[in-house]
Amino acid sequence: MHTAISLLALAGLGYASILSALDGTSAKLFTGCVTKGDAALTFDDGPYLWNKNVSDICAANGAKVTFFLNAYNWDCMYQSWYNVNYTDSLLYALSKEHQLASHTYSHKDMTTLNQTTLDREIDWNNLAIKRMTGCMPAFLRPPYGSYNDTVLMEIGKRNMTACLWDFDSQDSWTGANATNSKKAYDQGVSSAQGSMLALNHETYSNSSPDFTVFDVLPYAIDLIQSYGFNLVTVAECLGQKPYLSTGPPSKRDWTWYCQES
Ligand SMILES: *[C@@H]1O[C@H](CO)[C@@H](O)[C@H](O)[C@H]1NC(C)=O
Ligand SMILES: *[C@@H]1O[C@H](CO)[C@@H](O)[C@H](O)[C@H]1NC(C)=O
Ligand SMILES: *[C@@H]1O[C@H](CO)[C@@H](O)[C@H](O)[C@H]1NC(C)=O
Ligand SMILES: *[C@@H]1O[C@H](CO)[C@@H](O)[C@H](O)[C@H]1NC(C)=O
Ligand SMILES: *[C@@H]1O[C@H](CO)[C@@H](O)[C@H](O)[C@H]1NC(C)=O
Ligand SMILES: *[C@@H]1O[C@H](CO)[C@@H](O)[C@H](O)[C@H]1NC(C)=O
Ligand SMILES: [Zn+2]
Fold this sequence. Notes:
- It is a lipid-anchor; GPI-anchor.
- Helix 3 links the parallel strand 2 and strand 3.
- Helix 2 crosses helix 6, helix 3 packs parallel to helix 4 and helix 7 runs parallel beside helix 8.
- Strands 2, 3, 4, 8, 9 and 10 form a 6-stranded parallel sheet that branches. A 3-stranded parallel sheet has the order 1-7-6.
- It is 39% helix and 15% strand.
- It has one domain: Glycoside hydrolase/deacetylase (TIM Barrel), CATH 3.20.20.370.
- It contains 9 helices and 11 strands.
- One 2-acetamido-2-deoxy-beta-D-glucopyranose binds next to helix 5.
């Protein structure tokens, strides 16, 4: 009976959908922490110039954070991980017990991609993280928070978990400044329902030093801790493992090169 219904249901789907329906389950999608009393600060779109500063500022204040990373950042030269400086930043973040997670390879809207590009966006980023750190990330945040069932199925196929947020520091909003972002934190923390999963970016700044990192972050840490929250990684606040596997980093060789997906 069950089988007959399933086959009938599948008959209405395309070939690709049948394949993914048969060979995996949809990824779990979290929009907030599950452990009450936890707050997870997340930083998207890096690693960028101030990545080590985020690691340092948080570590100095007993905070663990999570980086949702793109291996191909803006271009293949300076902002790609295949630039040795960023490999270094990632290992540094790990040494401070922060979590590394995927934000896909080049930050495309996953719901606009064909199968080939969708696979590359997920797998090339995982490969880059794995090569540089030895860790295979268990978490993925779809760029722009944009996903559909196909996307979740692809993430699930790889045993990864999808993660959004329930608070936006607004630092990627056009024209937002540190004052706007701090106000957002004031409101967000005081109205938090027992936990908080906060979206920030390493990269958005009209000027150096970056306001998210050097102005808002210390303020947010102080504020959140004054409300009694523990600042932990996404994996911790969801009670899950941060990585599908861990091991030593690989040795850089000629196969480590950047290309568009
Ligand atoms: C950011 O970190 C670097 C070391 O990675 C340090 O040299 C620099 O002074 C820091 N910037 C600020 C503004 O603290
Ligand atoms: C790496 O960082 C150093 C020091 O900031 C800089 O001089 C160098 O140009 C960077 N390397 C690349 C490939 O961007
Ligand atoms: C998700 O988006 C992709 C790309 O536009 C599309 O091919 C796919 O059919 C969509 N899946 C669902 C379940 O809507
Ligand atoms: C998938 O999309 C990419 C990028 O738009 C394109 O270059 C490629 O030809 C497409 N592949 C297929 C099989 O349609
Ligand atoms: C996903 O997890 C299952 C069960 O642990 C395992 O059999 C499978 O190989 C994993 N797949 C991937 C792509 O890691
Ligand atoms: C920040 O932006 C707001 C507008 O949203 C503006 O009123 C305020 O003056 C700005 N603050 C600073 C310090 O630039
Ligand atoms: Zn992003």
